[in-house]
Write a structure and sequence with these properties.
There is one protein chain. This protein has nine helices and ten strands. It is α/β, with parallel strands linked by helices and 290 residues long. A ten-stranded mixed sheet has the order 1-2-3-4-6-5-7-8-9-10, sandwiched between helices. Helix 5 links the parallel strand 7 and strand 8. The radius of gyration is 18 Å and the shape is globular. The relative contact order is 0.15.
């Protein structure tokens, strides 16, 4: 294993688990040392095969451990021939290089795309090509997945948004306001998109403004239709997610770009049953282990 490289220095690790490997990196892109979990398929060590990779991005106020601790990612992928990479994305990092930060660098986009992706391909037996990579996520991570898939078209052949926003400007830019307001603590008063907004940055990140870049990409979308009325946050959040995903789907359809969409009961939550359906589609789309 190349311990250091691509601007990353390993400052912590735990490789004792047969499948789940943990790394903590020092990087100039982030002002603290982010963690990453790498979940290997059963039999990886002795197989000699190269595997497809899913980059799985957590939601707001979560971290790289969430899919393991809260959603049984080991069980959900047991027996499946795929590597799952689960990186820190900041509690409210929005998978972005923010317009401003007063607590040091918080360039999550750079860390993931320019550093971590290259480090993973150099250190694990992966298919280091677009046809071998997928990106998906929940909530803020679902937005990050949609953003990365379009902005870095040559990197991912499949994208999945589980209750992830797909439209930044609708409803007077509600999602941009969410991103700016929620990120102020992490950024020491800074913002992801600036105030006033850095309009070109918003447009570059906005899935509905980059429809053509989803061509030839598998697109999987999930949103809830019936958030519990007693849960104000879930109601408002998922209502906006659902509206944005519908707008996104309409634009994809008008452009003749295929997608798979699910509207299911419930609010703003990660649904393991939907992830299982998604994973089957990812495996069918990506290069097989070989």
């Amino acid at each position: 294993m190349v311990a250091n490289g691509f601007g990353l220095d390993i400052v912590g690790r735990n490789e004792n688990d047969s499948r789940l490997k943990f790394y903590r990196f020092r990087t100039g892109a982030i002002g603290w040392d982010p963690g990453v979990n790498v979940l290997l398929p059963d039999g990886y060590v002795n197989s000699g095969l190269r595997y497809p990779v899913l980059y799985l991005l957590h939601g707001g106020n979560q971290d790289f451990r969430t899919f393991d601790v809260a959603h049984n990612i080991r069980g959900l992928t047991a027996g499946e021939p795929i590597v799952v990479v689960m990186p820190d994305g900041g509690h409210t990092g929005w998978y972005s290089n923010p317009v401003s930060s007063f607590v040091g660098p918080r360039n999550w986009e750079y860390f993931h795309i320019q550093q971590l992706l290259r480090w993973i391909d150099a250190n694990f037996r992966t298919h280091a090509t677009r046809a071998g990579r997928a990106v998906g996520g929940f909530s803020m991570g679902g937005f990050g997945a949609l953003k990365y898939a379009a902005k870095y078209f040559g990197h991912f052949a499949s994208v999945s948004a589980h209750s992830g926003p797909a439209s930044l400007r609708r409803d007077a830019g509600l999602v941009v306001h969410w991103a700016n307001l929620s990120s102020t603590t992490d950024l020491g008063g800074g913002t992801v998109y600036g105030a006033p907004w850095a309009q070109q940055r918003v447009s570059a990140d906005n899935p509905v403004e980059n429809i053509a870049r989803y061509a030839a990409t598998r697109v999987f979308l999930v949103a809830g239709t019936s958030p519990a009325p007693v849960d104000w946050f879930s109601t408002v959040n998922e209502t906006e997610v659902l509206s944005g995903q519908r707008e996104f789907r309409n634009r994809l359809q008008n452009a003749g770009i295929a997608f798979e969409a699910h509207e299911v009961s419930g609010g703003h939550e990660f649904r393991t049953a939907m992830f299982t359906i998604d994973l089957n589609g990812i495996l069918a789309r990506l290069l097989p282990a070989s």
